[in-house]
Amino acid sequence: MALEIEGTLAQKLSVQSGNSARGPWAKQEFILEYPDGNYTAKACFTAWGQDKVQDLEKYQVGDKVKVSFNLKSREYNGRWYNDLQIWKIAPAGAPQPAQGPAPQPVRPAPQAPAYPQAPAPTIEDMPADPEGEDLPF
């Protein structure tokens, strides 16, 4: 599931690194403040991999950023844990690169042919009331 959110970089935690059976790894967590109705909410995101950690280095606390991320959950000892793993971070409000073919120009809908409008009816156009009828309708 790919999601996006814009907010303010509130805190950058220290880089963690190590070696696994698949080789070296690095990750860095950061806190993003974002508007949530009338309040400000915070979420902790993870930049996995050296390339994502280097992308995060470009931004300072207080910068407005747009984060694209995947939401993942896992179970451990009967408890569930969520992980917000980023796959892209960019300045907030930055234009997105075009994806796919260029959009086609919008063509106006075909218009119905214009006919002259009939004049509005007048009181003389109304049918005459039959004599002796008292009903108001």
How does this model look, in words?
The chain has 137 residues and is mainly β. The chain has a domain at 2-91: OB fold (Dihydrolipoamide Acetyltransferase, E2P), CATH 2.40.50.140. 6% of the residues lie in helices and 50% in strands. The protein has a five-stranded antiparallel sheet. A hairpin with a 2-residue loop joins β2 (23-36) and β3 (39-48). The longest helix has 8 residues, at 50-57. The mean pLDDT is 84.
**What oligomerization state is this entry in?**
single chain
| Fraction in helix | under 10%
Strand order of the largest sheet: 3-2-1-4-5
Helix tally equals 1
Biggest β-sheet description = 5 strands, antiparallel
Summarize the structure.
By secondary structure, the chain is mainly beta. The chain is built from one helix and five strands.
